[in-house]
Amino acid sequence: CQYAVALSAGTAALHMAVRLAGVKPGDKVFCSDMTFDATVNPVVYEGGVPVFIDTEYDTWNMDPILLEQAICDRMKQTGLKPKAILPVHLYGTPARMNEICDIASRYGIPVVEDAAEAMGAVYDGRYCGTFGQYGIFSFNGNKMITTSGGGALLCHTEEEAQRVKFYAT
After folding, report:
1. 3-state class (DSSP) for residue 130
2. Stretch (H or E) spanning 29
3. 76, 81, 143, 165: which one is catalytic?
4. pTM of the model
5. 102/167 Cα distance (integer angstroms)
């Protein structure tokens, strides 16, 4: 991710990422089931429907095996893929992002990475928040680095960063 946009909150960053991912009313977004409601509220703001993927025992984060099963089940039942995948690095513990991103790539699904609690955390030599199409951070009072509020959205293109600035203002 080459571009970062400062926003009013981590939730605002998630909202902008969900919008950039193209979530529209009725779209399903596969989310971690062990998270704070601010992770899934932006999905609902855009009219999407959160679908919760169970956690794995080791990390309490989205289970990549169950994620792929859910994608396959949805495609078999409806012919549709989820619009996005929204893993969370719970309590700063990295999710298995290599596996999640490999699955997302195979099915052509964007990843919105919630790294609100994981600033500075590293997985397989990379910082959390830099794996997905979009990564978000929070600077709320209970986070690793705080400004008592605020957030940031990481994105890959200047065009996306400019769209976020437009939406946010």
Report:
1. coil
2. strand 28-32
3. 143
4. 0.94
5. 30
Is residue 143 annotated as part of the catalytic site, yes or no?
yes
Cβ atoms of 91 and 121 closer than 8 Å: no
pLDDT in tens, 27-63: 999 999 998 888 899 999 999 999 999 999 999 999 9
Q: Report phi then psi at 83, rounded to 5.
A: -75, -30
pLDDT in tens, 13-32: 999 999 999 999 999 999 99
Residue 24, helix vs strand vs coil: coil
| Interior angle at CA 106, CA 68 and CA 103, nearest 5 | 35
Judge contact between 80 and 28, C-beta under 8 A. yes
Query: What pLDDT is recorded for position 142?
Result: 57
